[in-house]
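Hi F.,

I've been meaning to write this up properly since the lab meeting, where we talked about keeping a consistent format for the predictions we share between groups. The idea is simple: the sequence comes first, exactly as it goes in, then the structure tokens exactly as they come out, then a line or two of notes. No screenshots and no reformatting. I'm using this chain as the first example so we have something concrete to point to.
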Amino acid sequence: MSDLDDIPTADQLDGAPHPRSTETLFGHDAAIADFLDAYNSDRLHHGWLITGPKGIGKATLAWQIAKFLLTQAPDAGMGLFGDTPAAPSTLDVSPDHPIVRRINAGSEGSLFVLKRAWDAKKKALQNVISVDEARKLKNFFSLSTTEGGHRVVIVDAADELNVSAANALLKILEEPPKKSTLLLISHQPSKLLPTIRSRCRELRLKPLSADAIDQALGQADITIDPEMRPYLPALANGSVGEAIRMAHSDGILLYHQLLSVMQDLPNLNKQKAMALADGMTGKANADKFELMITLLEIAMARLARFGATQSAPEHLAHAKEIDVFARLAPHSQAGMKWANLTQDISSRLRHGRAVNLDPSSLILDTMFKIEECAKRL
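Output, unedited:
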């Protein structure tokens, strides 16, 4: 293995296969049908904005579209016997197609991926997509394609473009080269330049169902504790990427520890709370602390939702979750109180992380605030 093989890429989730190698996209048939309808009716837009929450398959869809477009014969026209070829009904292409093989090997000249670059000096990925990376598009489009075919650009993710890079991309969207398609992946399209959004057609992907998440996990060949797997959909928030993160970082076990502390409310077991908080300290536990913030937000949101609806969630994240929620939020007014506290806690935690406050103190302070609310209720 070379040193380059060890360099992380901005468009691949830790512990998951790269989107270009994912064969089947689950749960997004409607978006695929919208794209194929535009393609088959000769209304293929030059810019597509693929939106939706992180980890639900936006990049996988972009790569499948790229493979589809680049393997279509240019100017197909009539068949050998004067017949019109059937309109494609799927994005499926043969993995043995020479272009697909080159795409999977990262050597296809008709495809360009714009993403955050690796900083060799800092030995880390850059925080944004720089204008230097965006300017490479000019050279890409200046090259002639083989056999007069298509050219495709994947921007992963457009949210990460700095101002200068966004303006450079906008110029291309305003005057797109012939036979070119730009696929922009965006987790938060509202933060993009309005002029970029207006020059793209949107493909909006919805959160995945529990069945789709389970199918995607099976395809990704992720090793998951069978006892923990049933709880993943509840914490994944419709995202297979989040499910993979939870699986690889023991998110289910950490959530169960959190629920164990909440089981004792309204009288907080300080020893258990301190043990949970102490596990967040140190640089080695930075990712664990970030995960705990997410899990606290999930637990509080689920508690507030249970209080408001007085009904069990479709999927449980802990065997005793309903018992805990029913005791802490016995009526809709309690649900409102927990919802207000959830917003306050989320803001405090993320502000504290941003200014590098002690993680242990932040978690412990959060548990005390949860205890105060539980006692008032």
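Notes:
The CA atoms of residues 41 and 302 lie 44 Å apart.
The radius of gyration is 24 Å.

If this format works for you, I'll send the rest the same way.

G.
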